[in-house]
What we know:
Elements: E1 9-13, H1 24-32, E2 36-38, H2 55-68, E3 74-79, H3 82-93, E4 97-103, H4 120-132, E5 137-138, H5 142-149, H6 155-164, E6 168-169, E7 189-194, H7 210-213, E8 219-223, H8 229-232, H9 234-245
Parallel strand pairs: 1-2, 1-3, 3-4, 4-7, 7-8
Antiparallel strand pairs: 5-6
Helix pairs in contact: 1-9, 2-3
Amino acid sequence: MASDNDKITFVLVHGSWHDGSSWRFVEKHLHAAGHATLAPTLPGRGDSASMPITFQDCVDCVVDAVKAAGLSDIVLVGHSAGGSVVRKAAEMLADRIRRLVYISPLLAGNGEPVLAAVPPDYGALFKQMAEASPDNTVFPPWPVWRDGFIGDADEATAKAAFDELCPEPFGPIVEPIDLTTFETLQIPTSYINPTEDVVFPIGEWGFFPRMYHKVAPCRLVQIPGSHEVMYSNPEALAGALVVAGRD
């Protein structure tokens, strides 16, 4: 159990197709260790889905949640596409953040959209999926999810996680993101690398070390797990978050 001095408040920002409940298994372990969490659900999904939405709507959701909860000295965590969201949110929350933590983040350059961080073939596929959908959304096929996103889990876990997914609005991930202010911030940063993350092909376009190089030098924490390690190995991810988030 963490002492008061060691207690960490984590703000957990999910990636594509998820909502805030995707963190619940990780939160269980963090709470048992004495830490606090906040896991907002970004707009454009669930019962309160609102289309169309913008990238800034997602950012504002995180900022508003942190301010409404009166939180400070937080560890702001972004998974996958949530990594881009927390960067922009950090511009408005810098004085409340003790550390940024990325988990297999999608990080584009200043002035680029999130989509620029994915391999070109994947980007083209996402565009085709959005155009073919009735509401400009994208959604992963089960075979891609099963082996590419969560191959380290048993089938029951993978299927249960898949059943929780919701279509992702395409609009926010094709909007250019101005990171001029973010690039002036000096916030301590950590990067968690699930070593079995093969969403993108290993090599030039893999998450690691490509995304790590975009934030290095920073603290690196490596754990066994897939891209969806919050489902397949939540206890290990909780432990990695504590290592990544501590001073």
